[in-house]
Each structure stands twice: as C-alpha cells, then as structure tokens.
Specification:
two-stranded antiparallel sheet; mainly alpha; 106 residues; 4 helices
C-alpha cells in the first residue's frame, strides 16, 4: 500500500456518516497529510472497488461515500444536507417525500 492510502483510509473511517472527497481532502490538509486531490480520488475509487466504501449517488448528482460493504440502493434525504441520518425528517413524512421525489417504492 502506498503511503497516501493509509492516511486517506484513516480520514474516511474518522467521518461519521457520508462524506465527499473534498471533505476528506480538507481533513487531510488540516492534518498536513494531504497527498493531493487526484490521489484521494484514486484511493477512494480503490476502496469502493474493494467494498470498503460505498458510493452514494444523490439527486443533485454530487457523490458522497460512506463506510459499508458491497452494493446497495439507498434513498438519501436531501433536506438533511448538513447531517444526513440525524433523524431530522419526521419518520412518517420522510418515506412519502422520498417516494414522491424519486418515484421509487421500497
């Protein structure tokens, strides 16, 4: 494993919830460990290929990633941009909104 990859993996596992490559870069830069955005993108792609990270495709076409195993289909609430998964959407309202927005029925 090349030197930048463990730093990227550590930064990814330190995140709570989903994150973007740019958020990883900011975390690594703050610690003085950023290998550069291209290396971070390559490492994230490798970690996805190894099923250590999952890609989350959002309605706004911005990719985010999370720790996880394998392929999955997730519906992400776009009302929770700052803290996805915080439960800010009422449980009885969120599923209906997701179905309406995505035309996807679980």
């Amino acid at each position: 494993m090349t030197a930048p990859r463990p730093a990227v993996l550590e930064a990814a596992t330190a995140h709570q919830g989903a994150f973007s490559v740019h958020e990883l870069e900011q975390r690594l830069t703050a610690r003085g460990e950023s290998p550069g955005i291209a290396s971070i993108f390559r490492t994230v792609r490798l970690l996805c290929d190894l099923n250590m990270l999952r890609r989350i495709h959002r309605l706004d076409e911005r990719r985010r990633y999370s720790l996880g195993k394998g392929h999955s289909h997730d519906v992400v609430c776009t009302n929770q941009r700052e803290n996805p998964g915080s439960g800010a959407c009422a449980e009885d309202v969120a599923p209906a909104l997701c179905v309406q927005a995505s035309r996807f029925w679980p």
